[in-house]
């Protein structure tokens, strides 16, 4: 029973096949010609469009590559450069650690003042350059109201950067329709891309002409093989490419995405409904006392992401004890156990068994 898909998704058969094929049929025999002949060079944008389809982005706005942390760094600075003269970077105070650490560093680099608030309590004003929020809180599993956040930010003239790491692949998203400016997200959680799978970055088309990324690597050049003196940005999101893409990880992700867009794949509305049903089954199977006092995730479907978090004493110990009983979850300090409901491979039985095993241990 694998309920850690919010941390590292299970391995899709197609990811394994794609990785083995990349090693045996491409790298081994094609060698350097693979950059053209196997389409390696175009992969960051080709996969970007596939991920884009899962987050409500029209083609040409998403690129895949590097880690979420590297993408965040670039996106935070590029976002700030869209609003020169404004002095505040407004970020979620409870954001995932890497998002908080990078926001602090970017504030120092750019001279912006870092102000933190909870996403639903943010009050951007005429001095706010960037509003940075997650779509779903990594600890509590609370899903934030992106429409409201974008509305308030745009009213104040700020741009919005959303981290989709805990949302992509477990719910439909509508970046274009919501008017989100920039977004990043990881592909090894609900997208099952494998350990360290490359992250993605989204920039809305309306910003492409002036998009000014800080990491001006050669693969983001308009003509990388011209090897010119100065950096000229590639058109659109292509300029967010930095160095040589990690092709083996990318091709594993290429296979993994078939879960969501291959033949017979479920649509994300179905995945979302099934994930919520799994969470409901888990919550219903928890003993009443524990359910009333210790579940920190909102019960309303509209305010819940893909995982449910339970506050316990000794989260680490319980996590290990659950694993010994065949239920894989994860623990987050100081006191949370997280149960991830990735509908493609978690069953209602798994969800109920996890709740019963937890109750027995408690
Ligand atoms: C998982 C996660 C990350 C991961 O960052 P990496 O650079 O891939 O390690 C970043 N931000 C959030 C919100 C996450 O949930």
Automatic annotation (TrEMBL):
InterPro entries recorded: Kynureninase, PyrdxlP-dep_Trfase, PyrdxlP-dep_Trfase_major, PyrdxlP-dep_Trfase_small
SUPFAM superfamilies: PLP-dependent transferases (SSF53383)
Alphabetically ordered keywords of this record: Aminotransferase, Hydrolase, Pyridine nucleotide biosynthesis, Pyridoxal phosphate, Transferase
Cited Gene3D superfamilies: Aspartate Aminotransferase, domain 1, Type I PLP-dependent aspartate aminotransferase-like (Major domain)
GO molecular function annotations of the record: transaminase activity
Cited Pfam families: KYNU_C (PF22580)
Domain of life: Bacteria
Family annotation (PANTHER family): KYNURENINASE
Name assigned to this protein: Aminotransferase class V-fold PLP-dependent enzyme
Species this protein is from: Actinomycetospora flava
């Amino acid at each position: 029973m694998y309920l850690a898909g919010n941390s590292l998704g299970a391995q899709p058969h197609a990811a394994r096949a794609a990785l083995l094929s990349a090693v045996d049929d491409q790298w081994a025999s094609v060698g350097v010609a693979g950059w053209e002949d196997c389409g390696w060079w175009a992969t960051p944008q080709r996969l970007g469009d596939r991920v884009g389809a899962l987050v409500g982005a029209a083609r040409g706005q998403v690129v895949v590559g590097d880690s979420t942390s590297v993408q965040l760094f670039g996106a935070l600075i590029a976002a700030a450069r869209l609003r020169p003269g404004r002095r505040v970077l407004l970020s979620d105070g409870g954001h995932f650690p890497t998002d908080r650490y990078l926001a602090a560093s970017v504030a120092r680099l750019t001279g912006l003042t870092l102000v933190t608030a909870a996403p639903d309590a943010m009050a951007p004003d005429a001095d706010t350059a960037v509003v940075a929020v997650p779509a779903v809180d990594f600890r509590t599993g609370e899903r934030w109201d992106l429409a409201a956040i974008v509305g308030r930010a745009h009213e104040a003239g700020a741009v919005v950067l959303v981290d989709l790491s805990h949302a992509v692949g477990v719910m439909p998203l509508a970046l274009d329709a919501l008017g989100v400016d920039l977004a990043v997200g990881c592909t090894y959680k609900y997208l099952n891309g494998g350990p360290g799978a490359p992250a993605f970055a989204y920039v809305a088309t309306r910003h492409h002409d002036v998009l000014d990324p800080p990491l001006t690597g050669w693969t983001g050049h308009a003509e990388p093989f011209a090897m010119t003196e100065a950096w000229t940005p590639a058109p659109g999101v292509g300029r967010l490419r930095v160095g040589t893409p990690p092709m083996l990880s990318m091709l594993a992700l290429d296979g993994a995405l078939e879960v969501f867009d291959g033949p017979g794949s479920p649509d994300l509305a179905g995945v979302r409904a099934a994930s919520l049903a799994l969470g409901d089954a888990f919550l219903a199977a928890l003993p009443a006392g524990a359910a009333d006092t210790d579940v920190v995730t909102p019960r309303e479907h509209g305010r819940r992401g893909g995982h449910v978090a339970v506050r316990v004493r000794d989260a680490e110990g319980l996590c290990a004890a659950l694993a010994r009983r065949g239920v894989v979850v994860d623990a987050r300090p100081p006191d949370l156990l997280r149960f991830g409901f990735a509908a493609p491979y978690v069953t209602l039985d798994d969800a109920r068994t996890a709740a019963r095993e937890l109750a027995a241990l408690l």
